[in-house]
Hints:
- It is a single chain.
- By secondary structure, the protein is α/β, with parallel strands linked by helices.
- It has 2 domains: 1-115, 3-Layer(aba) Sandwich (Glutaredoxin), CATH 3.40.30.10; 116-243, Glutaredoxin (3-Layer(aba) Sandwich).
- Helices cover 41% and strands 23% of the residues.
- It contains 10 helices and 10 strands.
- The strands form 2 sheets. An 8-stranded mixed sheet has the order 2-1-3-4-6-5-8-9, with helices on one face. It has a two-stranded antiparallel ribbon with strand order 7-10.
- A hairpin with a 2-residue loop joins β8 (188-193) and β9.
Amino acid sequence: MPVEYDEELVEELKKTFAGLESPVKIHWFLDPDAECVYCEDTQQILDLVQQTSNNKVTVIKHVKSDPETRKYNIDMFPALLIHGVDEWNIRYFGIPAGYEFGAFIEDIVDASTGRVNLSPEIKEALLKYVTRPTRIMIFVTPTCPYCPLAVRAAHRFAMVNKNIYGDMIEALEFSDLADKYGVYAVPKNVIQIDGEDKLEFEGAAPDPYFVAQILQAYGVELPQKLQEQLAGLGSEEIEETVEDVHEHHH
């Protein structure tokens, strides 16, 4: 799955990155002892991002034994971690290719501005109720058109509350983990609190629904304003988006 790009994409990226406000660091974590099928392709993507960002994006490589690996709680390889105005847990396990490339670019822009497009009610709920290390694992494949929506949601939530780890996990590269969680359709979303699996659901859900799932994992009732947002979506819209899944075969 080599990364193919043309002049048009290069120009588009230059235009997008012209809006970067603060420098962005992408930490790339590798395990030198493990086979890495897509590392060359990932390197191509990172080179492209660096070149088109006018040096506003820097890539820093780490190996498994580096102190940064422990500092940032990186437990699987290869991994990418995006830092900008602040250090958040915006993480990619596996290659951000195919449909995920767009999410990767949007994350870089968000990290550079520090601004997140979420309703005040959602930000408030995430800050108030997510009080322990909470990992949102989004299993994806590069060919899944709905997956970036779920990944972006998890990453925006991670920018609101540092207890949240937003993890894109490429199901083909981490096939043992995907098997463990019975990933047959993507995006498959798993919510862990303190390392314990609490809840899982499939599909790219609207933000209020997604937050409702996180609060459910905490055993918290949804605040009134969020209930109203959820009611405003209508059950059909929720069913539709949550049914937006892509069959995953490996």
